[in-house]
Design a protein that fits this description.
This protein folds into 3 domains: 344 residues, ABC transporter transmembrane region fold (Up-down Bundle), CATH 1.20.1560; 165 residues, 3-Layer(aba) Sandwich (Rossmann fold); 74 residues, Rossmann fold, CATH 3.40.50.300. It has 21 helices and 10 strands. The two termini are 65 Å apart.
C-alpha cells in the first residue's frame, strides 16, 4: 500500500507504532529530540522579539540602561538556550548513531525467530535487503522517523510563535474603516495575507508530495544495493574468495559487474534524485519569494499608515519570513513522513511475518532413549518451486536404530532431514513422534531431541569452548570429553588459550585460522556435547574422500552408543553398520532395507550406487 492509498489515520497508526519501536530501542531519544526541537524553534524568536523592543527604544526615549538590559536578556537567553540545545544535540547524535545498529539487531532478532523455510524464500530475502538498503542509501524507515518527527514539532512551534507575534502586532489599531488606512488595519487584510500564504502552502505540499512519490518509486524499482552489498561487503571481504580472484583473474569481471549493475545505475538514481530535488526547491524558492514580496507590501502599508512602529516592522517581517520557511519545511516534512511510511510498511511487513512454529505440549521425558519417528505420506515443495522436492515419503525410524539415508545429490535427502527436524512443514502428510504429530509438541522442546551436523555447518568467531557448548557458561570437563571423542583435544590443548582460544580473526586479532578438518571435528564435538537422543549427520564429510568418510562415520557409530543415528550421504560409507538403509531418488523412496538384502536387487538404485563405489569399501 503506498501513501496515496493510505488515509491519515492509517499513517498516524504507523507513525505511532514506529515511535513505539524507537522508544523500545532508545527510550530517551524521542523525548530529548522533541524537547530540543522546541528549544531550537524558540531561540530565534527571542532575538526577533527583543530586537524589536530595542529598536523602538532607540527611536523613542533611548534609555541606555534599559537598552543594555534588553541586550543582556537577548544575548544571555539565546546563549543559555543554545548551550543547552547543543549539549542535548550531542547526546541525541550519539543516540541516533546507536539507533541504526539497534534497528539492524531488531531485524536480525526477528530473522532468527522466523520459520526456516522463509529464510530460503526470495520474497523475504528481497524484503530484508530492501529494508537495509532503505536505511543505508535513502535514510528511510525507523531511523528517519526521529528527524522527521522533530522537524514537524519544531516547525509547528515556530509557526505558532510567528502567528502570535503577527496577530498581536497587526491588530493593534483594531480599526475597521473604509479608508486606505482602515482597510490596511482591518482584520480582513490580515486574513487576505494568511489566505495567500495558505494557497502557497497547498502548492508546496502538492509539490513535496509529487517529489517524494517519484523519489520512492525511483528507489523501489532498482536492485542496485544487492549488487553493491554482495560484491563490496561479502565477496570482496571473503578471504576465501581472495584466492579465486587472483588465480582466475576475476578483478576486471568484478569491476565491470559492480560498475554496470551497481555504481552506474546508482549514479543514475542519484542524478535523477538531484534533478527532482532541484525542481522542488526551485519551485519552493519561487513560492517563498512571492510570499516574502506580499509580506513586504503588507508591512510597508502598515508602516505608512503609522499603525505599527519601526520595531514592529522588523519583528513582523522577520516573523513572516520565519513562518514562511517553517510552513515550507512543515509541508515538506509532512509529505516526507507519509512517504517514509512506505518504508515503514516494508519494515512492519517483515517483523509481522507470521510464524508457523508450534507451541504445543512438552515432550515427556524418556530415560531409555525410546523415540520412534514416522513419516506418513509426506509431500513437500519449496515456496518458489512448482516441482515437489519430496513425494509421498513414508518410513519409520525405530528406537536406537542406525539408519543410512543414501541417494544422488538433489534426490531429497537434506529436504527430508529438514522436515524431520521441524525446519520445514509438510505440504501434505504428517510426521509423528511416538505416534503423536510433531506439530502438537512444543517446537523448541522438539528441536532439543536432535543433534545435527549439516554439510554446510557454521562455527562462530568465538572461543572454542563456547562453540562446543553453544553457551557462555559451560562444563569444562564435558567440553574436553567431547573434544577428545571428536579427536581434536590434543590440538586444542596445544593452543595458548586452550578452550578460551577464539577461532578466526573476524572479531579478535589473536584469533586462529583452522583447517577444514579441524572445523569438522569441532562441529562433531558440538553435536556430542549436546548429548541429544537422536544424532543426524547430513553429509558433514562431503569434502573428504570415501575412505576418510567411512572412518569418521564408523567412529561416530561407536561414540554415540545406544542413541538413534541417521547417516546421510550420496556415498555409502555408513551402510555396512546400519540396520536400515533408505534409498532416495528424485524426491521419492525407491528402496528400503539392509545392505545385503538391497544388493540382491541388481536392478535397483542401491546396487547401482554400491557398484560405482564398492572399490572404496573393500
Amino acid at each position: 500500500m503506498n501513501s496515496e492509498k493510505r488515509n491519515i489515520s492509517e499513517d498516524l497508526r504507523m507513525i505511532k507504532r514506529g515511535s513505539g519501536i524507537i522508544k523500545e530501542l532508545s527510550p530517551r531519544l524521542l523525548c530529548l529530540s522533541l524537547l530540543n526541537s522546541l528549544l531550537s524553534a524558540i531561540i530565534p524568536y527571542i532575538s526577533i522579539y527583543i530586537s524589536a523592543i530595542i529598536i523602538d527604544e532607540l527611536v523613542g526615549k533611548r534609555n541606555l540602561h534599559l537598552i543594555l538590559i534588553y541586550v543582556a536578556i537577548a544575548v544571555g537567553g539565546s546563549l543559555v538556550l543554545s548551550v543547552i540545545s547543543n549539549l542535548m544535540m550531542n547526546k541525541i547524535n550519539v543516540m541516533k548513531v546507536m539507533l541504526f545498529p539497534k534497528v539492524r539487531y531488531y531485524l536480525n532478532a526477528k530473522k532468527l525467530s522466523m520459520d526456516f523455510i522463509k529464510l530460503e524464500d526470495p520474497k523475504y530475502t528481497e524484503l530484508r535487503a530492501k529494508i537495509t538498503g532503505n536505511m543505508l542509501a535513502m535514510g528511510g524507515g525507523i531511523t528517519a522517523l526521529v528527524d522527521l518527527m522533530t522537524s514537524i514539532a519544531s516547525n509547528i512551534v515556530s509557526i505558532l510563535f510567528a502567528i502570535i507575534i503577527l496577530v498581536g502586532t497587526f491588530l493593534k489599531s483594531g480599526a475597521l474603516k473604509f479608508t486606505t488606512v482602515g482597510v490596511v488595519n482591518s482584520v480582513w487584510f490580515l486574513c487576505l495575507l494568511f489566505l495567500i500564504i495558505a494557497v502557497c502552502v497547498v502548492l508546496t505540499i502538492r509539490n513535496a508530495r509529487t517529489e517524494n512519490k517519484k523519489d520512492f518509486n525511483l528507489f523501489r524499482t532498482n536492485s542496485t544495493n544487492r549488487y553493491l552489498n554482495y560484491y563490496h561487503f561479502r565477496y570482496m571481504e571473503d578471504d576465501q574468495a581472495a584466492k579465486d580472484i587472483r588465480i582466475f583473474d576475476q578483478r576486471n569481471l568484478i569491476i565491470h559487474e559492480i560498475f554496470s549493475k551497481g555504481r552506474l545505475p546508482w549514479l543514475n538514481i542519484i542524478t535523477s534524485r538531484y534533478s527532482l530535488q532541484q525542481k522542488y526547491f526551485g519551485a519552493n524558492a519561487a513560492i517563498s519569494a512571492f510570499i516574502g514580496g506580499i509580506a513586504y507590501i503588507f508591512i510597508g502599508l502598515k508602516a505608512l499608515s503609522k499603525s505599527i512602529s519601526l520595531g514592529d516592522v522588523t519583528k513582523s517581517y522577520a516573523s513572516i519570513i520565519k513562518m514562511v520557511s517553517a510552513v515550507s519545511d512543515l509541508s515538506f516534512s509532512f509529505s516526507q513522513i507519509r512517504n517514509n511510511n512506505n518504508y515503514l510498511e516494508l519494515f512492519f511487513e517483515f517483523i509481522d511475518t507470521p510464524s508457523e512454529s508450534h507451541n504445543g505440549t512438552e515432550i515427556p521425558a524418556r530415560n531409555n532413549n525410546d523415540w520412534e519417528i514416522e513419516f506418513h505420506n509426506v509431500c513437500f515443495r519449496y515456496p518458489f518451486c512448482e516441482e515437489y522436492a519430496l513425494k509421498n515419503v513414508s518410513f519409520k525410524i525405530s528406537t536406537k536404530s542406525r539408519v543410512s539415508i543414501v541417494g544422488m545429490n538433489g534426490s531429497g535427502k537434506t529436504t527430508m532431514i529438514k522436515l524431520l527436524c521441524g525446519l520445514y512443514v509438510p505440504e501434505t502428510g504428517h510426521i509423528t513422534l511416538n505416534g503423536k504429530d510433531i506439530s502438537k509438541y512444543d517446537y523448541d522442546a522438539y528441536l532439543n531431541l536432535f543433534a545435527v551436523l549439516f554439510q554446510d555447518f557454521k562455527l562462530l568467531a568465538f572461543p572454542i569452548g563456547q562453540n562446543v557448548a553453544t553457551s557462555i557458561d559451560y562444563d569444562d570437563a564435558k567440553v574436553w570429553n567431547s573434544l577428545e571423542l571428536a579427536g581434536i583435544s590434543d590440538r586444542v590443548n596445544s593452543l595458548p588459550l586452550k578452550l578460551n582460544q577464539t577461532i578466526y580473526r573476524n572479531v579478535k586479532e589473536d584469533g586462529i585460522e583452522i583447517s577444514g578438518g579441524e572445523e569438522q571435528k569441532i562441529a562433531i564435538a558440538r553435536a556430542l556435547y549436546k548429548n541429544a537422543p537422536i544424532y543426524i549427520f547430513d553429509e558433514p564429510t562431503a569434502a573428504l574422500d570415501p575412505i576418510s568418510e567411512y572412518e569418521i562415520y564408523s567412529k561416530f557409530n561407536e561414540i554415540i552408543g545406544d542413541k538413534t543415528a541417521l547417516f546421510v550421504s550420496h556415498r555409502l560409507s555408513s551402510c555396512r553398520f546400519c540396520n536400515t538403509i533408505i534409498v532416495f531418488d528424485n524426491g521419492q523412496i525407491v528402496q528400503m532395507g539392509y545392505h545385503d538384502e538391497l544388493l540382491k536387487d541388481i536392478g535397483g538404485k542401491y546396487y547401482e550406487l554400491w557398484s560405482a563405489q564398492a572399490q572404496y569399501y573393500q
